Amino acid sequence: MTEKEKRDLGMLYLASRDDELCKEYIKAKDLCFEYNMTRPSDKGRKAELLERILGKMGDNCFIVSPFWCDYGYNIEVGDNCWINHNCVILDCAKVTFGDNVFIGPDCGFYTAGHPVDTARRNAGLEFAHPITVGDNVWIGGGVRVMPGISIGNHSVIGGGSTVVSDIPAGVIAAGNPCRVIRELTEEEIQTKLAEQSESTDDKEAFDDTRLGNPRKPEGEAGAMMLARMNESHGPVTDWALSFLNPEGARKILDIGCGGGATIGRLAGLAPEAIITGVDYSPVSVQESKEYNTELIAGGRAEVVEASVEELPFADDTFDRITTVESFYFWPDPAENLKEVRRVLKPGGRFYLIADIYGKAGLDQAILDNIDLYDLFNPSKEEFLILFRNAGFIAVKIHVKEGTDWICVEGIK
Predict the structure, then answer these.
(1) What angle do CA 106, 125, 87 make, to 5 degrees?
(2) What CA–CA distance (Å, rounded) separates 94 from 20?
(3) Pair 86, 179 in one domain
(4) pLDDT tens digits, residue range 321-330?
(5) What is the pLDDT of residues 357-367, one digit of tens each?
(6) Model pTM?
(7) Residue 90 three-state SS
């Protein structure tokens, strides 16, 4: 009997003495390394690698890098599953996740174990017992699940728990060791099911925005967020740029250039102009440069790391200036608007573009996000005062009927 056969039967085995296991282990580590090094915006490649790593992957599944496993082929993931940063799965035995499983960051699922007695442990012997996670399970951040554990459908495991015994269906459990705190009510289960029926895209959008830090995008989650925002900000940007008169414009500045899509739009609208993007996030600068590689190579665009607090340009430099969805986060809006006006040419125009502004009737979800991200969200009247106090000689307010969109146009 081979060591691999012993492993699969739950017997003690020596992984290091089985050439096949050693090759499979290295293959999985190489694939995980490649997955973790692949850019978040390259979703096609990441999906391809994930299919190669996992034994089974359902529809609408995503694992946020970094992710590590031992073999990969012993992992089965159902539909609509989300596994957050820093998940480690030691899949020496089968690890099965049902449908609609949400796993927080820094979680581990360990099928591997070692004998208690020193002699056999020091000899390198180990064992592997399968882990099963049912449907509609939510596992909080920092949870560790030990060999041979089963977690029942609909259950919630509190963050930081160490699960050393089976958890039944329909309960909230937490602690170290993890214990059942109480049963979920039928109403709670149905509410949980309704929440989990949201699309994976919506779940991904929420998580990569929160983790990526929209105030100053950072890390892999920030790059992922910027790639998504290049698309989601497109409609409001196209609408607002319809007010841009590019005639005679030779230099255009985009403040808070994010993922770089607005730079590309401006270059198309003003084919004679050089477009400069600025952002104080190094991740945003890198993403913008990659998005606009051809424009930069052709001398049509440049991207600079800088803050709206102190723009690295001379007075009266730009014919047009734009900012899309960034004003919410400006550190000192009143003073920052004066800095924008300083680098704008006399007669030049500044366009502040946002998909919400302070008005009556905003959805509760929008109000919640304003609080969550501490957004500065003036009303039309407040925008007029801010722009006039900053020294703009004329201010036009554009709003799109049936939406919460606004474009504030200031003329120097």
Answers:
(1) 10
(2) 17
(3) yes
(4) 999 999 999 9
(5) 999 888 887 88
(6) 0.55
(7) strand
Give the three-class secondary structure for 365: helix
Q: Give the three-state DSSP class for 134.
A: coil
Q: CA–CA distance from 176 to each of 146, 179, 231 (Å)?
A: 12, 8, 43
Task: Judge contact between 366 and 404, C-beta under 8 A.
Answer: yes
The answer to the question of residue 205 being in a domain is: no
How far are the Cα atoms of 150, 164, 182 from residue 136, in angstroms, in the given order? 14, 20, 17
d(CA 117, CA 335): 69
399/357 Cα distance (integer angstroms): 10
Sheet holding 67-69, edge to edge: 67-69, 87-90, 108-110, 144-145, 162-163
What is the tens place of the pLDDT at every residue in 51-88?
999 999 998 888 999 999 999 999 999 998 999 999 99
Q: Which one of 142, 166, 197 terminates a domain? A: 197
The DSSP output letter for 307 is B
The bridge status of strand 406-411 relative to strand 344-354 is antiparallel
Is 113 within 8 Å of 94 (Cβ atoms)?
no
Do 189 and 306 lie in one domain? The reply is no
- Residues 103, 184 within the same domain: yes
Query: What residue numbers bound the domain in which 38 lies?
Result: 3-197
Which of 155, 171, 197 is the endpoint of a domain? Answer: 197
3-state SS of 363-376? Answer: CHHHHHHHHHCCCC
The residues carrying an active-site annotation are 114
